[in-house]
Amino acid sequence: MSAPSPDTDRTDLPAESDGFVRGLSEAIGGPVGEHAVRPTERHNRFWTAQRIILALVCLTLAFSWVQKSPCQDGDWQKNIQYTRFCYTDVLALYYAEGLNEGKVPYRDHPVEYPVVTGYFMGALGLPVHALGEKYPEINQGKWFYNANALVLSILAVASAAVILALRRRRPWDAAIFALSPILLVTATVNWDFLAIALAMGGLYAWARRHPLTAGLLLGLGGAAKLWPLFILGPLFVLALRSRRIVPFLIAFGGAAMAWLATNIPIAALYPTSWNRFFELNDTRPIDWGTLWYIGRFLDGKWNSGTAGDQGPFQWLSDNVGTLNIVTYALTIVACAAIGLLCLLAPRRPRLAQLAFLVVAAFLLFSKVWSQQYVLWLLPLIVLARPRWGAIIAWTVAEIGYFAAFYAELLGAGGKPVIPEGTFVLASGLRLVTVAVLCGLVVREIWRPELDVVRRTYPDDPDGGVVNDAPDAEWVTGLRRLFHVEAGPKKNAENPPPAPVEAAAGGS
After folding, report:
1. What are the Cα distances from residue 93, in Å, to 80, 87, 96, 109, 113?
2. Contact predicate 476/486, CB 8 Å
3. What is the dihedral of CA 466, 470, 471, 477, to 10 degrees?
């Protein structure tokens, strides 16, 4: 990590650095003035910025538990799971995966998730089943959900703690995560926080120059949900640009070891069960709210969908094998473009910026976008572009989609609750806002002087071993070929505002 300097060793105040927050602050008198009296004895104050953020995360998760409480007993009569917006895979799959019968994941029942998630389900589900055998009067499903909700909430708090650790000079960035309605409504829909916490731990280890640990954590995350492995791509292009290939190879080796160590035992003992996840991904049709779902709906405005009268999306819907190839090809092309952007950018991009772009590209082109996948993007956008305005617009679109999706599910088996076009509109707005966030991140990569994180830090706070490394000569030549001028290494052209004490502490 770059050594702090008097110009950069300061705590950011959002009311000074973020235009959206500055505008809101006018309702209470505006940003703190330069002559305002500020607390000077931080060590004597309990409520530092970090503790406030962690308390807010706990409060949001508590409200999330309340929001899901109508579904906890499993008595889902009259579609209560949709009318109360409280559906959760955690409770549904306790019965669907046979955990309520004491079935061991993979051995006795094929699980539709990667192995670390299956291990997690079994580690909590089998003790609950054993307890239910001893005490038949307890509601096993409710116990299982609450046990999972507790552990997933702990992992969510740990993820917030990693954001705070990575942004010690910008602790209020983590408030975007802590106060997010996305966290409130989706935290315990599925087991995604297991992978998120592991991925965030991998980013932290890389930032602290521990590539082997970073690789191990990313590999474990990829064995829980596949997407943490995508972060290896940004690590590769950053290492390529900065001539730090050896640390990347160490991280890649660690990820491979962790993934193989968790997968090989199941693949060897129960190959059919292990392959269930990959089989489902290969055969699964177009899912709700995806780009392909929207395209199929629009095709239906001009084509009947019958053989010989199909639009391109309708045809792809009936030819899943080709659809898979198209989605993979588009994702690969997008990732290649992100890699080229990394090499051509005037200044080496930050790891979080590239990680967000890669994961967002995967979701934008994927044929499946389950409601909880939005959680993958939340911590990454906080690290990549901690600007409240655009993130709030995206959040509004996500919550709108969340409500429309439940209305669509409610009407799937009978009379429609909302017109299909309304659901498609909500789906489209979600995709557009994610694409806009990607565009804003790309703009700040190309114009690093607009990046608020770079105004606070002399280099990438997540960069680890690539920080302060000169560009490879061939990368410099590539930029000359495309007539791209190198940007300033430090922030001499756009220094941070004058030093200030943090109103709620923490640096």
Report:
1. 17, 11, 4, 12, 11
2. yes
3. 180
Residue whose structure tokens are 């055969």 = 283
Residue type, 57: V
- The residues, any chain, with a CB within 8 Å of residue 417's CB and separated by 6 or more, are 407, 408, 410, 411
pTM value is: 0.90
Q: Which residues contact 171 (CB under 8 A, 6 or more apart)?
A: 11, 49, 50, 53, 164, 502, 506
Contact 38, 498 (CB under 8 A): no
Query: Coil, helix or strand for 109?
Result: strand
What is the distance between the alpha carbons of residues 343 and 14, in angstroms, rounded to a whole number?
A: 31
Whether residue 501 has pLDDT greater than 80: no
Q: Which amino acid is at 183?
A: L
Nearest to 203 by CA among 192, 221, 218: 218
Residue bearing the bigger pLDDT, 305 or 217: 217
Contact 251/213 with Cβ under 8 angstroms?
Answer: no
What residue numbers bound the domain in which 85 lies?
14-27+47-481
Question: Which residue bears the tokens 């006795």?
Answer: 108
- Record the tokens describing residue 485, joined without a space: 């001028």
38 inside domain: no
CA nearest to 20, candidates 166, 175, 160? 175
**Closest residue by Cα to residue 382 from 152, 91, 182:** 182
Kindly provide the b/e burial profile for residues 258-269, where b requires at least 16 CB atoms within 10 angstroms of the residue's own CB. Answer: bbeebbeebeee
Length of the chain: 507
Domain count, the chain: 1
Provide the residue type at 244 as one letter: R
pLDDT tens by residue, 163-215: 999 999 999 999 999 999 999 999 999 999 999 999 999 999 999 999 999 99
Spatial separation of the C-alpha atoms in residues 238 and 349, rounded to whole Å: 8
Number of neighbours of residue 118 by Cβ within 10 angstroms: 27
Closest CA to 122 of 136, 134, 108: 108
Give residue 385's identity as a one-letter amino acid code. R
CA dist 218 and 198 (Å) reads: 6
Flag whether 214 is in a domain: yes
Is there a domain that residue 201 lies in?
yes
d(CA 428, CA 10): 40
The DSSP 8-state label assigned to residue 495 in this structure reads: P
Residue 229 covered by a domain: yes
**Residue written as tokens 């700040």?**
444
Q: Is the separation of the CB atoms in 322 and 316 below 8 Å?
A: yes
Q: Report d(CA 426, CA 287) in Å as an integer.
A: 15
Decide: helix, strand or coil at residue 176.
helix
